[in-house]
Amino acid sequence: MTERVVLAYSGGLDTSVCIGWIAEETGAEVIAVAVDVGQGGEDLDVIRQRALDCGAVEAEVADARDEFADEYCLPAVKANALYQGQYPLVSALSRPVIVKHLVAAAQKHGATTVAHGCTGKGNDQVRFEVGINSLAPGLKCIAPVRDYAMTRDKAIAFAEAKGLPIATTKKSPYSIDQNVFGRAVETGFLEDIWNAPIEDVYEYTQNPATAREADEVVITFDAGVPVAIDGRKVTVLQAIEELNKRAGAQGVGRLDMVEDRLVGIKSREIYEAPGAIALITAHQALENVTVERELARYKRQVEQRWAELVYDGLWFSPLKRALDGFVNEANQHVSGDIRIVLHGGRAVVNGRKSDRSLYDFNLATYDTGDTFDQSMSKGFIEIFGLSSKIAARRDLG
Amino acid sequence: MTERVVLAYSGGLDTSVCIGWIAEETGAEVIAVAVDVGQGGEDLDVIRQRALDCGAVEAEVADARDEFADEYCLPAVKANALYQGQYPLVSALSRPVIVKHLVAAAQKHGATTVAHGCTGKGNDQVRFEVGINSLAPGLKCIAPVRDYAMTRDKAIAFAEAKGLPIATTKKSPYSIDQNVFGRAVETGFLEDIWNAPIEDVYEYTQNPATAREADEVVITFDAGVPVAIDGRKVTVLQAIEELNKRAGAQGVGRLDMVEDRLVGIKSREIYEAPGAIALITAHQALENVTVERELARYKRQVEQRWAELVYDGLWFSPLKRALDGFVNEANQHVSGDIRIVLHGGRAVVNGRKSDRSLYDFNLATYDTGDTFDQSMSKGFIEIFGLSSKIAARRDLG
Amino acid sequence: MTERVVLAYSGGLDTSVCIGWIAEETGAEVIAVAVDVGQGGEDLDVIRQRALDCGAVEAEVADARDEFADEYCLPAVKANALYQGQYPLVSALSRPVIVKHLVAAAQKHGATTVAHGCTGKGNDQVRFEVGINSLAPGLKCIAPVRDYAMTRDKAIAFAEAKGLPIATTKKSPYSIDQNVFGRAVETGFLEDIWNAPIEDVYEYTQNPATAREADEVVITFDAGVPVAIDGRKVTVLQAIEELNKRAGAQGVGRLDMVEDRLVGIKSREIYEAPGAIALITAHQALENVTVERELARYKRQVEQRWAELVYDGLWFSPLKRALDGFVNEANQHVSGDIRIVLHGGRAVVNGRKSDRSLYDFNLATYDTGDTFDQSMSKGFIEIFGLSSKIAARRDLG
Amino acid sequence: MTERVVLAYSGGLDTSVCIGWIAEETGAEVIAVAVDVGQGGEDLDVIRQRALDCGAVEAEVADARDEFADEYCLPAVKANALYQGQYPLVSALSRPVIVKHLVAAAQKHGATTVAHGCTGKGNDQVRFEVGINSLAPGLKCIAPVRDYAMTRDKAIAFAEAKGLPIATTKKSPYSIDQNVFGRAVETGFLEDIWNAPIEDVYEYTQNPATAREADEVVITFDAGVPVAIDGRKVTVLQAIEELNKRAGAQGVGRLDMVEDRLVGIKSREIYEAPGAIALITAHQALENVTVERELARYKRQVEQRWAELVYDGLWFSPLKRALDGFVNEANQHVSGDIRIVLHGGRAVVNGRKSDRSLYDFNLATYDTGDTFDQSMSKGFIEIFGLSSKIAARRDLG
To answer: Reaction catalysed by this chain (chains A, B, C, D) (predicted)?
Structure first.
């Protein structure tokens, strides 16, 4: 019986060529699987047909947008997940949901191998392969670009030679990955890290310097989940989509950073994530109101580790599950409204309301109604500082 | 011999009244000490004379601006210190330098007690008293507002009865603390955390929504220290002052947050810190280029603890010293130029240059010259993910 | 209506005197509540009657031994909780369960206040009062020894004057707190930290230096819960009790340490916790076999924070609940058998067996059957070490 | 010009065969380098001659025992470095010092490559190669056992065919690595993790169950450095050697654990490290007396990361250097005497003395002389527990 390979298929030139390339390299039948995580672009049926036209024995397409939003983006919001304090893990979050569909297809079709279109120097190869290994330890992984030296030029030649129904125009100067949670751009001239990005690289966001009216939005959370925008009920997917539009129109969510890749190198990356940044900003502000201090302090460390793990491709790892245990418990009371002004590239919280609030007006106020017992402070200070004071007596001596 | 009390003197109504109030409560002689940490306002000589006119037996004023910048603000920049990920510790940084001057004055003048004007429900009382205890474990601390019930109304009545040379106009609606590193504002109507701040609360920053030309600035660091701006050599103090002006003019550095106080309550705070935010943003970006990944990941945790410790008033603690050991070592190679665009409330880094850079174009590029050996990745992924894979074999079983 | 005070009652001299003392100081009626956490000693009914004889208007006794083992000791075992890496939190664990019963009694009897017998310089006052505040924020707390200057001498005089039915013999040289999870001893001559403890201070453990036969025990865990000993099913309480006996007989579980109290001072403490130490040792060894590496590494940090929180009296805090979310998830697969040799003061694990094991003989063995693909290592090493290598190229240059 | 390879040479069969094997595989000249880290065994001159007899073009031997103790073991003691809370990093510490000598030899002799005898599934290959990459990024690394399939059987055949002057007796059942800081043993029958070790596997330690007299030792530290034993001045090397003898004679320092290797698998390891365990135990006890609480709590996390980094072969990494900055600062006051009883496999601290002590008898005592101001506690407790109390009011509502 012929071996079968499931291929992560995008509909573009590279993975279209992969279908035939893998068949030639391995003699296997190729099953193309395309997963919609909100990347936009062509219709899924068109993509499906192209895979078949390019030689796939089977082609499957899945609308995973709600699944992606609910099971991958939402945990990231709950964890305020920002790698290096900035990057909301756009691509890193989409890989595990794609992996899930690839593995399901492999099991359904009796494939022994999963193929993806990544190169050998990025993070995504790790996220695909470690993910696949963690969901189906018996599956093999191949990456034609990395393992079979399928360069861009060779891919174009292959497509032309075989008459594949796919445009082989010269490569765009941009290498792009996008989904509903954001968009990543790499391009040659930004590999000189002194060069500034130009407007041309952006698609999800307008120029923040352009004059326009501010947009004020109220986001309602229930136990960490965004459930309404300006009072209208939304799914998580809808929340992200609406905020992509509104925050994107105000130039919110652009990032320009030098990033530490898992494979040990630093790379320059441009991201746009208007919805993600708006949601996380609002969620953090609501946590400031509803999460107790010591839990908040510890959660910041957990958030960092969560983001690193997911960045590093360990979504399906035991540590990720245990951190989720913490994060979910910590989000139990993160309910209420956040008012946020989107304008000029900024997402600024200026109002919070919550019936789970720990902000106590009567303890906080300096006006009438103050219930804070200031006579307690003397004792607190004395004992809080005692171990430092004892050390000082020694160290100054 | 009469006891002596050193008072942290600001020149304002409250601490002017404190001079006589303390004398009446304790029978001690009061020595007023005013420390210039860049808070602006009246001339130090005027303040000094007022203290004497209000009954101080001695009055000392100290220009501690460079000391504050070099020994307190700079370590905060090296540690990218942002409490709750936002607040650059403006007031928290100034307390220890003031404490140092108070303690020196107490030792010089044979005082047994130090007094300050804080209330009993804020962080500053802790910072003053734990700091004093740590530099001079034998000194006593008093706070007339907290310990002798010196309310605002009683202070006004006292000033008028004694004919003190100080205005007793009705209290401003704002409670303000400011120094060269930033400005903190509290005010009654913002104690309703749903209310948005109004332009009137700001002084260090212009309205970010006002149309104006962007300002591009290049900040040069040497081992974590800002040493030049646009190629002109600067002291740390000059760097902060110039960036306060330029970033402030662009509306950069406004913060509106609900904060976890050390005394256990949440409070609403408005901050402006244009220079601090610009410097820390630039410093972080340069670290991204010059600090190795594992060190960078660990440093983020150290930064959080550093900020919490300083916020909590433990500047002079043994842990703070040991964390500084880490932070200084980590800053050894943080040298180079950062280009940053100040505009519309944003401080956006868009260029980095460093001869200590760890960014390696040839490893990062996808173009000609790529030296990354992609054949290594297969083995890396297999072993990097092995422990997760073994766990998966069990957990899926 | 007369105010009512619930008193944490032990049956000893101090708390017996407290009944009348509180009544005199406050005019309130006193309700005595004794909680059995396995401290041994007198019958609960005897204690109950004595409380009434000493003037309590009500007296309640509760056998909380299983509750203590299941809900307080067990989480500590799952968290391998050892404060300062050594102390299994014996007293710190018992306070919250006692607090729960005190608060329940206060609510049942309409009391406004809870009283306890602690001094003002230890950890237990914090654990009692913060616990009570967290379960019933409206209750007041009093501690006659601390708040009403009820010294030992005065207590004896009071007891004699009132003819209380309690022995007023001279105080034992030892200050002891004990429960089923262990025993704590403080005594004057050990306050000189150069002095060694003498055999007389120990009760739960035999002298480890005495020659005797070793005892080998197999402890079975299911998801972190000890469920059998030598194949016999046990409750958690039974597991602790049996191991107290068997490990205690071998001198296991003695601790002599200088400890950092929450109130800022260091104190010398002697502990005996044979069952706790045996259980935690076994549990750790089983985790080494069943918990994936990254989870195991992170859990060590969580364990430390868990132990500090509980030591610091924050059992009922939000952070504690979130850490439990992590710890429980991490214990999901901690199932299997640990063989442990108890002898000469040592508890030495020398065998592990688990059907949830992640130890893979075929990957680990150097003999026939080795399935580890060594060709993967080259790539792993190259990329794992790449960021260090790039930094080295710079730093050595 | 012929290429040159520097080989880490032990004098044993495997590395003796490597000399000729590498020459045949690569055509290079082989330079043998043996480093004495206290592993005992043959005289260095004998080893040197054997290398030459086996075909090395040059052979160097270095007595690195003091260097190893001072620059590698001592930092581990200061960091109380115990991987997984148990293993004192015996082999992990020796690799970097050997690497330093290999790199120096390579630079001296113009070699392009360094070779070592490790297999492809252990930690040591990583430690060698990442270390070499970090000290000399231009050097290549080879491992004949891993890269050229040099199995034990083939090695014996090679040695016999070439008449190498080395015994080719059947392999010992034990795979051993040892140095002055300890000894590691792996062996086939212990790969079944239910099997207990037998006395035969141990060499550095006597059976702890054998009856004998206890040995009491006083170790003096100065700023974290062991400087005297029983009042006699010692070097670090002498301290380790003497404690190896005395603690080893009492059966102290045996470990039996399942360990998480860097390469992703779990392995069963037996260690003996009597001197290391005695020193770390004493050092920890002295820290308990001389290190302030918050510093002590944070240092435990730093220690864990330090041990993981060194275990993982990242001795020469930037993070390691920054952690050392912390650890050295934290050890500044760790000076004084620790009395420790070595007996029956236990190393029990029972006395501490230090003129840098933070233990304050007058604050700690419950007897006459108590200076602790208990009236401060009420305020401390109220404010310390306030954030939990506010959360409780919400959560119980």
So the answer is: L-citrulline + L-aspartate + ATP = 2-(N(omega)-L-arginino)succinate + AMP + diphosphate + H(+)
Contact: A265, C386; criterion CB under 8 Å: yes
Q: What is the structure's pLDDT at D131?
A: 97
Which residues does chain A have within 8 Å of residue C295's beta carbon, measured at their own beta carbons? Answer: 317-319, 322
Query: Is B353 close to A85, i.e. CB distance below 8 A?
Result: no
- The matching CATH number, chosen from 3.30.70.20, 3.20.20.20, 3.90.1260.10, 3.40.630.30, for C175-291+333-353 is 3.90.1260.10
Residues ≥6 apart with Cβ < 8 Å to D96: D72, D127, D131, D315, D316
Judge whether residue B133 has pLDDT over 70: yes
8 Å CB contact of A308 and B293: no
**CATH no., domain A176-291+333-353:** 3.90.1260.10
A87's CB contacts (< 8 A; 6+ apart) are: A255, A257, A259, A269, A271, A311
Q: Where are any strands of DSSP class E within chain C?
A: 4-8, 29-36, 58-63, 113-115, 140-142, 174-179, 182-187, 215-222, 225-229, 232-233, 254-260, 266-272, 336-343, 346-353
Q: How confident is the model at residue C172 (pLDDT cuts 50, 70, 90)?
A: confident
Contacts of D77 (CB under 8 A, 6+ apart): D224, D226, D276, D279, D280, D283
pLDDT in tens, C20-50: 999 999 999 999 999 999 999 999 999 999 9
Our answer to whether residue B293 is catalytic in this structure is no
Domain ranges within chain D, ordered by starting residue? 4-171, 175-291+333-353, 361-395
pLDDT at C169 over 80: no
Chains near A with 3+ CB pairs less than 8 A apart are: B, C, D
Answer for the pair D215, D252: CB distance below 8 angstroms, yes or no: no
Give contacts of A292 with chain C, Cβ < 8 Å. 317-319
Q: Does C264 touch chain D (CB under 8 A)?
A: yes
The pair of structure tokens assigned to D15 is 């590395």
Residue B1 confidence (pLDDT) above 90: no
Identity of the residue in D323, D325, D386 whose CB atom sits nearest the CB atom of B264:
D386
Residue that the structure tokens 């919805």 belong to = A275
> Quick check: helix, strand or coil at residue D115?
strand
Checking DSSP bridges between strand A254-260 and strand B58-63, what pairing results, if any? unpaired
> What mean pLDDT, rounded, does chain C reach?
96
Residue C377 bears catalytic tag: no
Question: Has D177 been annotated as catalytic?
Answer: no
- ipTM of this predicted complex? 0.97
**Pairing verdict, β D113-115 and D140-142:** parallel
How far apart, in Å, are the Cα atoms of A74 and each of A80, A313, A327, B266, B353?
10, 17, 11, 27, 37
Share of chain B above pLDDT 90, in %: 94
Percent of chain A with pLDDT over 90: 94
| Dihedral angle sign, alpha carbons of residues D306, D310, D314, D320 | positive
CB contact, 8 Å: A263 with chain C?
yes
3-state secondary structure of C229: strand
Partner-chain contact A260 B385, CB within 8 Å: no
- Shortest CB distance from B386 goes to which of D265, D314, D324? D265
- The answer, for D120 touching chain C at a CB cutoff of 8 Å, is yes
When pLDDT is cut at 50, 70 and 90, the band that residue B181 belongs to is very high
pLDDT tens digits, A211-260: 999 999 999 999 999 999 999 999 999 999 999 999 999 999 999 999 99
Q: With a cut of 50, which residues of chain D have pLDDT below it?
A: none
Among A107-121, A160-174, A265-279, whose mean pLDDT is lowest?
A160-174
Number of H helices, E strands in chain B: 15, 14
Tell me, what's the pLDDT at A170?
A: 67
CATH no. of A4-171: 3.40.50.620
CATH C-level class of B361-395 = mainly alpha
pLDDT, tens digit (0-9, with 9 covering 90-100), for C186-215: 989 999 999 999 999 999 999 999 999 999
